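Worked Example 4.2. Consider the chain below.
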Amino acid sequence: MDHPADAPAYRDLLCDRDFVYGVETVPARGIGLPKSFGRLVDEVEALIVDPRFSWISITDNPGGTPMLPPDWLASALQEYGRRIVVHLSCKDHNRNGLEGAAWRYASDGFPNILALTGDYPTTGFGGTPEPVFDLDSVGLISLLKAMNEGMEVPGRRGQIEKLPATDFYIGCCVSPFKRYERELMPQYFKLVLKILAGAEWVIPQLGYDMRKFHEVKLMLASRGIDVPVVGNVYLLTKTVAKIFHSGRLAGCVVSDELLEQCDKYGAGPDKGKQFFRELAAKQLACFKGLGFAGGYLGGMARPEAFADIVDLAESYGRDDWRDFMKEIRFSQPDEFFLFDHDPQTGLCEPGAFNPEYLRSLARPAKPKEVNLNYRLSRMVHSLAFTRGKRLWGMMRAFFGRLDKKPEGLAMRSVHAVERGSKSFMYGCQDCGDCSLPDTGYLCPLASCSKHSRNGPCGGSAAGRCELDDKDCLWARAYERLKYYGESESMLDRPAVLYNAARQKTSAWANTYLDRDHHAPKAKEPEQQ
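Applying the procedure from the previous section yields the following structure tokens:
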């Protein structure tokens, strides 16, 4: 095997025509010194020096539980840095903390970043922690891209200073294993937004229907987007299958049918070992046959188990994957598919969209979400908040006069009217940088657990929020926008980066005076 310094970098591996394999590793909770942690490092190093594996990936507090940060494990393997993918999620750090972590990774020689919004925290010292989500995955990708281009920031003497450019290879996730159209389509639209924001490679979240994995590539091809896609495989056990089926791990889906098989084989003499390894190997073979850039193996297993799965995948015949495509179709009841797959092969020709979906775009049914509140909101926006039309000029001039005395009685009175009306209609949190026009007039602070302004996270299940306390905001917004023929373009816009400096100020004034994200020209975020 090549010396670590001479081995191909992760980005070169994905852009090569050869199918390559990687492995996910998970740090633990506790002090990183005892023998158990030394064993973890030894196992990970055994994987990365194994010629069957081209890279390893290190998670960032998966499942919303606290663990050692991924750079702790990465630092023990620094000589392999170009072949290590570090996960970076938004749940535990604000944008400054994320930027600081990114500078650390760049300085330590870890250029490969998988940018994630992150799971909602589930446990912590003394109770459930308050999540951050200052940025979402789109915002994080935008930050990393800006760092790659050389960020311009205010210097100590007031002049603009350009920081050294980084060389991050930015990855992103997408969750295709959604049951309903209203939650799947926003996932795909957000994936396109992520790529436009700077993501260069994609890994889907977990499921066990190869048609849905294939749809990710088909959807990207339909948009003329050519980026490497890595297939995701998790080595199941009977216990893990039950956890995935329960929905307790966001974005991980095991259907009723697959759970029955897992229970059946898991009760056998080998506890399902052969069945689970064959299932993983067959998925890898399908990814290779479908033209994915690589396969990504995860699960609580020893290095030799992952090696055996790769060996098994490589032992199959050239076209065996076509039979496996027919086997691995563990879909959810009435699951929506964007493409029209051949019922015999499970395959789909590029551009062969689901005909029922196309018909529904032409004649959308009126959903319950299109209520009086929404219709009134659209009317008011068209009348008073559409730039350059109708009342826009008059309102801009009015707020321009009020802004000459921003703390005066007139501005305070107008702001009070704004707060009261928007709180009553939308549950407004008075953020001062309003995203209601972006989100189908559903407040992201009031109606989304992660306050997502750039599309859905991957955690919804059957249209419900990851916390299962409400319907997903973006599924609701999709239904509203589809009725008016606007769903396909719902995320055709730049990334929204909320400016906390606007909090508790008038969002109306900020809109009319070009001080929020709706301003026609992008402005650098204020340095506080």
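Confidence is low (pLDDT under 50) at residues 523-528. The two ends are 50 Å apart (CA to CA). Compare this with Example 4.1 before moving on.
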